[in-house]
Amino acid sequence: MFDITAVGDVFIDGITKIVLALVVWIIGKAIVNKILKLLEGLKSIQTREETLKRYLLNGVKWVLYAILIISVIGVLGIPMASVVAVLASAGLAVGMAMQGSLGNIAGGIMLLIFRPFKVGDYINAAGGEGVVKEISLFYTVLNTTDNKKVTIPNGALMNANVTNMTAEELRRVDLTFGCAKGEDVAKVQQVMLDTMAANDMVVKDPEPFARLSGGTNEAMEFTVRAWCKSADYWTVYFDLTQAITEALGAAGVNAPAVRVITAK
User: Fold this and answer.
1) CA-to-CA distance for 235 and 239, rounded, in angstroms?
2) Residue 104 in contact with residue 138, Cβ under 8 Å?
3) Which residues pair with 211 in a beta bridge?
4) Domains of the chain, start order
5) How far apart are CA 150 and CA 131, in angstroms?
6) Are 185 and 225 in contact (CB under 8 A)?
7) Is residue 208 reached through a cis peptide bond, with omega within 30 degrees of 0 on the bond before it?
8) pLDDT tens digits for the chain (264 residues)?
9) How many separate helices (H) and strands (E) can be counted in the chain?
10) What is the pTM assigned to this prediction?
11) How far apart are CA 65 and CA 62, in angstroms?
12) How far is CA 162 from CA 7, 87, 146, in A?
């Protein structure tokens, strides 16, 4: 005979377990967030370098969520032995599927050990360029100069050439200027050197550089080099581009002649 009472008991028991699992998940998630906030506020964590701090907190976050998920499974009444058996039987497939993820975790650990860059550095690597905002277990997040978010797998970063623009205190600004053939080379050079000397962001040592470096039948080309703090690079780049162009004009230095080609 069909026992409606037994079916009702099973249904109620299932609903109860689901509700309890949801409660455990909600409360557990709140506890995890609270623990992470408490850890972030600890003096021993705050004194750590930003890159290491973020990596440690991400690692703790994953461990806490793993414990929470196991707790929810227990509340649902699913035998852990069955869960372990299913995971073991699917271990090879899961391992193959997670090969890239495991490589990213290993890449993140290597980045943490060798420190080719840290949070706050401006880098160019693996097809991305920007300021490092976060180094997590799997990915490194960059912010571009036009405020785009670029996410790069740690494994790809560890196997790529990384150019760190801000690793050193000083950085060199390289510019090229042209003037008409026949202008006084020494005069043009001095105008450029004086303009760089007038810029407070240009350091005195190494000294600014301005020399004739090439040309054509209509023009002479000058190479200009100035050193500045890495953080001031783009400001100095644009300031010198404008200031030297204006200074050459004010000194009466003519621009290169433009060859006009008449269509036949």
Assistant:
1) 6
2) yes
3) 223
4) 4-89 (no CATH), 100-164 (2.30.30.60), 170-250 (3.30.70.100)
5) 10
6) no
7) no
8) 445 666 666 678 778 888 888 888 999 889 988 888 888 777 766 666 666 777 777 778 888 888 888 888 878 777 766 666 665 666 556 556 556 677 888 888 888 888 899 889 999 999 899 999 988 878 899 999 999 999 999 989 988 999 999 999 999 999 999 999 989 999 999 999 999 999 999 999 999 999 999 988 889 999 999 999 999 999 999 999 999 999 999 999 998 764 444 343
9) 9, 8
10) 0.62
11) 5
12) 63, 38, 20
Distance CA 117, CA 6 (A): 63
Please give the structure tokens belonging to residue 236. Answer: 């100095």
**Residue 9 amino acid letter:** D
Candidates 203, 193, 199, 172; CA nearest to 248 is 193
Both tokens of 212, joined, read 């004739």
Torsion of CA 35, 41, 46, 48, to 10 degrees: -10
